[in-house]
Each structure stands twice: as structure tokens, then as C-alpha cells.
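Hi everyone, sorry if this is the wrong subforum. Our group has a chain we'd like a structural model of before ordering constructs, and none of us has done structure prediction before. Sequence below.
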Amino acid sequence: NLELSALEADGKDKIVSSPRVVTADQTKALIEQGTEFAYQQATSSGATAVAFRKAVLKLEVTPQITPEGNIILDLDVNKDSPGGVVEGAMSINTKRVKTQVLVENGGTVVIGGIFELTETDQENKVPFLGDVPVLGNLFKQRTRKADKQEMLVFITPKMISDRGAVR
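Answer:
Right subforum, don't worry. Here is the predicted structure as C-alpha cells:
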């Protein structure tokens, strides 16, 4: 048997999730946590119906133990989050890492480094007065915002010999 623990860090030293799953050699395991968001969808008759979209954190892994005692992991990590509403439909932001790695028993590997930087410039002004040259600056407010996000996934596989060893 094999115990896998995954730690996802998002932002600066912020732990988003720490799922654990136990599986056997060469057996796929899946752990998923999330929510469903309701939105309205047009039907073929022209009426509207409520539909749902999932936004989940999902870890799918297939381990393979090598003769040397190391572990080959086929990994698929997916993190969805709700986006904005576009034309009445909910959008879902997705971050995904799919890879194969070789890890020592009990060792930790960091996979994926999805970095996102969003910069926003906003200007608020008093109508008409904000448009007057030079004097208009007294009636304006400018804001600049930078939002940084990074998704890092830490995986630590551990071989276990009996059920009592799972913690």
C-alpha cells in the first residue's frame, strides 16, 4: 500500500488543501473536494433551467513502486475556482498540472509552478470636472492594483506495510 499526501500552496505561505489518499501499487486513486455553482441556462424550448457546474480541487494519482524502492507517480492535479458570469453562464477558472515523476519513498517533490500576475488600473472621476485639463486632476482618483497568485503542488509518497501505519 502507498500513502500519498499532497499539499497545495496558493499565494504567500497559504495552505489551501492537504488531501491524503491510500492506494495500492499500480492502482489509480482519486480524491476530490469542491462545490457546485448554480446558473441559468436556456433550453431548446426557449425557457430557462437551472444547471450546475463543479469547481473542485482534485488529485488523481497512479503509483508504481520500482525495484529500488522508489515510487513513480502519474499525477493529475486540478484546481478550479469560480470566475465571473459571462452572458448568464458561470465561468470556471482552472489550474491543472499533469505529469509523471520519480520520488524516493518518503521524499517530497514539488510539481507545477503556475504563476499568475494580474495588474489593474482604475480611474474614478467627477463627471465633466474630471475632464478639465490640469484642474481635472483634483477631481480624479487613480488606483493601480497588482494581484499575484502561484499554485505549487507538493507530493509526499510513503510506502506502508500494514493498515496500522496509515496516519
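For your construct planning: The longest strand covers residues 140-159. The mean pLDDT is 81.
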